[in-house]
């Protein structure tokens, strides 16, 4: 099945610390990361198109994590193109292995509305995805089942796991990401270390390039993605740049909140 291009899927890639089994824990309870996305294309220069937020909390069992992520259209996108979108994702994440357990998603694009749930069973090595149309409950659910490995992430947990990796220039990693019931192998390369001007001040960052575009990949078209992650203990994704057929999308960190303020 061919993966359709979606600006909203790409925005999640931009972004969605203690030691556990020698691996850095990227989940800080109470952390809220807020971003703004801007689009540049032809005569349009850096127009605001979306706000993104990621909120981390402990799950009800006090062992696992719950990340709530939201992307909502704003500004010129609404005024000029009269197009709105809202996407909410809740990712339940294993508190020790950091693998994905369940993904709940609500996706609104104009008049289109979809709810979905992806459940991961590692004993059966399977992900089961069910998508429904709340506006037409008589419509049969869309169902997909795929095989998964022991270390699988969804879009949100995949973003966070980048923060736990031992980043260094010229290193390459491979992540297994599941989205909408399908599974992808995504190579990630660390290509440079650069100074970036951010809301945190001027900070050194690793330049990270996930290979999500191309034939057989998550987004089957030409494009590129870069994420800048701070080279410190925080490992904060502060900026991302996407070059797509829609134009260039810039996403920058605007605000960080924690339990301690």
Strand percent estimate: over 45%
Helix content class? under 10%
Run of helices and strands: HEEEEEHEEEEEHEEEEEE
N-C termini distance? 45 Å
Mean pLDDT: 86
Secondary-structure content class: mainly beta
Number of strands: 16
| Major sheet characteristics | 14 strands, antiparallel
Give the low-pLDDT segments: 1-23
Name the strands of the widest sheet in spatial order.
10-9-8-7-6-5-4-3-16-15-14-13-12-11
Radius of gyration from the alpha-carbon trace, in angstroms: 18 Å
Helical stretch tally: 3
- Overall outline: globular
What do these coordinates show?
This protein has 261 residues and is mainly β. The longest helix has 8 residues. The radius of gyration is 18 Å and the shape is globular. The N terminus is likely disordered.
Helix/strand layout:
Blueprint: H1 7-14, E1 19-20, E2 23-24, E3 32-41, E4 44-58, E5 65-73, H2 76-81, E6 85-93, E7 100-109, E8 112-121, E9 126-132, E10 142-147, H3 155-162, E11 172-179, E12 182-198, E13 201-210, E14 224-230, E15 237-244, E16 247-257
Antiparallel strand pairs: 1-2, 3-4, 3-16, 4-5, 5-6, 6-7, 7-8, 8-9, 9-10, 11-12, 12-13, 13-14, 14-15, 15-16
């Amino acid at each position: 099945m061919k993966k359709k291009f979606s600006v909203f899927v790409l925005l999640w890639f931009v972004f969605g610390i203690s030691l556990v089994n020698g691996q850095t824990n990227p989940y800080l309870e109470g952390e809220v990361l807020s971003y703004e996305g801007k689009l540049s294309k032809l005569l349009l220069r850096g127009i605001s198109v979306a706000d993104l937020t990621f909120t981390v909390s402990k799950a009800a069992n006090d062992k696992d994590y719950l990340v709530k992520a939201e992307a909502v259209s704003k500004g010129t996108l609404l005024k000029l193109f009269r197009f709105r979108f809202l996407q909410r994702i809740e990712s339940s994440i294993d508190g020790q292995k950091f693998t994905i357990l369940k993904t709940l998603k609500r996706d609104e694009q104009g008049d289109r509305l979809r709810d979905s749930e992806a459940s991961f069973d590692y004993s059966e090595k399977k992900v089961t995805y069910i998508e429904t149309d709340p506006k037409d409950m008589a419509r049969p659910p869309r169902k997909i089942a795929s095989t998964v490995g022991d270390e699988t992430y969804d879009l949100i947990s995949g973003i966070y796991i980048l923060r736990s990796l031992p980043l260094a220039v010229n290193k390459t990693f491979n992540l297994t990401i599941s989205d909408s019931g399908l599974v992808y192998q995504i190579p990630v390369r660390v290509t440079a270390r650069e100074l970036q001007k951010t809301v945190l001040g001027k900070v050194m960052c690793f330049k990270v390039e996930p290979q999500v575009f191309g034939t057989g990949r998550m987004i089957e078209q030409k494009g590129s993605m870069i994420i800048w992650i701070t080279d410190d203990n925080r490992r904060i994704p502060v900026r991302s740049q996407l070059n797509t057929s829609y134009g260039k999308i810039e996403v920058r960190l605007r605000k960080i909140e924690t339990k301690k303020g």
